[in-house]
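Continuing the series of single-chain predictions for the mutant panel. This is the parent chain; the variants come on the following pages.
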Amino acid sequence: MALAGDGAKAVAVEVNSETDFVARNPEFQEMVTSIATVALGVGEDVEAILAASYPGGGTVAEKVQATIGKIGENMTLRRAAALSVSSGVIGTYVHGQVAPNLGKIAVLVALESEGKTEPLAALGRQVAMHVAATNPAGLDAGSIDPAVVEREKTVLADKAREGGKPEAVIAKIVESGIKSFYKEATLLEQPFVHDTSKTVAQAVKAAEAEVGAPIKVTGFVRLALGEGVEKEETDFAAEVAAASGVKG
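Parent structure:
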């Protein structure tokens, strides 16, 4: 995973190799970093990135093929994601960093605000670290996939029926359970990993005093290396907490 940004805009790209050995290769890392820089200007469409000019000559696709030929291992630009704000910052964080802006997880968080850039960027990084640790399903209740919510309702109802609860009670159990689900699954309602006495929304609101203006979290992106291809049994929450100095 690689990040590139210019404050109000940022992009994350995933370039896969076959082995960790190649992922640690300086030439591969330089290529991935350059691809992220290209994507910052082109956008998140993979085909557009591959067709774009690569620094030093040729296209990104040609550079990838040349690097495959030189290193002798297949590699692929799998995906990219971008966020931007009209006013404010894109907070960024790379977890498992192996080189500047290169690592296992890349996070972008969009903060819209007319306030001071420096404290806003610091807040953005903290929220991005939170996203890396907790992997929210959405920004708020309205952004959760309805199919996910329906599955959760079905699980709650089935469990209540197995416990012998009447239908009238089951409806109330499901309603209460979904509220709890939103608190666990949505970014703004989750306990902030840097101060669990506050939700993320409350922490953002509290930061407005230092920033000097209202702040609105308008979106986030979390890309994990190999996500959907392989599952890693790693406690990312513990790792990110350790990186941020937060004790469990």
